[in-house]
Amino acid sequence: MYNFQQYRHIQAPGWTLGWTWAKKEVIWSMMGSQTTEQGDCSKYKGNVPHCCKKDPTVVDLLPGTPYNQQIANCCKGGVLNSWVQDPANAASSFQVSVGAAGTTNKTVRVPKNFTLKAPGPGYTCGPAKIVKPTKFITADKRRITQAMMTWNVTCTYSQFLAQKTPTCCVSLSSFYNNTIVNCPTCACGCQNNSTESGSCVSERSSHLASAVPGKSTNAPPLLQCTSHMCPVRIHWHVKLNYKEYWRVKITITNFNYALNYSQWNLVVQHPNFDNLTQLFSFNYKPLTPYAGLNDTAMLWGLKFYNDFLNEAGPLGNVQSELLFRKDASTFTFEKGWAFPRRIYFNGDNCVMPPPDAYPWLPNTGLKPVISLFQPVMTILASCVFLWANM
Fold first, then answer.
1. Domain COBRA C-terminal: where (predicted)?
2. Which of 58, 142, 233, 282 is most open to solvent, judged by the fewest CB atoms within 10 Å of its CB?
3. Nearest 5°: phi and psi at 376?
């Protein structure tokens, strides 16, 4: 299994793969994974198959599995990282010994109805497609053997199938305006019609969250009560303005008391990313879907420093600052240009505030005072401005 998605993980508790056998196949043994059920194997005496179900469900083995049950790229608990962020851990493998399947490529039938849960819904798998047989090179690299048959199955993801409501939102602020644009109200649902009673906990009562058993990634949502009710909020703050540069601060806040995010990532679209000069405490990789267009960046935390987004509370946030060089032909603070066009968190599209609510530059219509001392006063004012902003 290869995760070719550039910025979407398959997180714990991991993937679940299923299919339907075309005939009366059984699984005699497995390496690197196991089925969740054995099924009815009563007709077999002595040597009993690993699974006799018509539609087996396969899960990955956990780290620490004995070596005699492992193969390469197995035993990660079903976790697959994104292709850009961690390509070394973007693949998973397991081996199946199948019985009653046939002996030649004329008698073997391809399974059908493939399903992938990662760990919930969202993926839709196409039919198995027979491709050129896989070739294997021996350890001494002097001989090549060939598989009897190889087929590929491609599964695509849809955020609309994965969850009914969004999972993140964006808030905005700037140094030139006192207005803080919060996430839209009920961006990810409302408090009065949340999924379950008690799934919203006020910040003052956050000590109740510590009593929740097993704070794991498959726990039910237990959110801090907010107007937007989103598990994650990304705040974009236009912090400083220099002569040739401008500075942005990004803060990611986790409002979920029952969920941590390991190896999180952001995808941000802004036209000034082609002039990104310096990044503090985040990793950066440009995403260029079109040649010559560099307006999209992927950001993620530094390993062992801020790649882990803790659950809601005092430590439930990560932040960094970005320094951009100005391009005189495009740069402006007017009409919300300094704010991102779109933001994704862990591959999910975040809800943006409406454009007419963005912080705007204050109106400045005062006429300059004509004076003999005006040039001197202008120079002094410029010096103070630069000193305050360096």
1. 167-359
2. 142
3. -65, -45
In a domain, residue 204? The reply is: yes
Residues 203 and 344 in one domain: yes
In this structure, of 54-68, 105-119, 191-205, 208-222, the range with the lowest mean pLDDT score is: 208-222
- Alpha carbon 388 to chain centroid, angstroms: 38
The closest of 307, 340, 15, 352 to 157, measured between CA atoms, is 15
Task: Tell me: cis bond preceding 221? Omega within 30 of 0 counts.
Answer: no
Predicted TM-score of the model (pTM): 0.81
Interior CA angle at 196 toward 192 and 198, to 5°? 80
For the residues of 81-148, what is the DSSP string, one character each?
A: --TTT-GGGSB---EEEEESS-SSTTT----EEEEEESSSS-EEE---EEESPPEEE-TTSS-EEE-S
Does residue 372 sit within a domain?
A: no
SS3 200: strand
Burial string for 268-279 (b: 16+ CB within 10 Å, else e) reads bebbbbbbbeee
pLDDT tens, position by position, 6-46: 999 998 889 999 999 999 999 999 999 999 999 999 999 88
Mark which of 160, 179, 194 sits at the end of a domain. 160
Place of tokens 């995010």: 261
Query: What is the rounded distance in angstroms from the CA atom of residue 71 to the CA atom of residue 332?
Result: 55
Q: Is 196 exposed, middle or buried (0-12, 13-18, 19+ CB in 10 A)?
A: exposed
Nearest to 327 by CA among 244, 215, 226, 232: 244
Domain that holds residue 72: 16-160
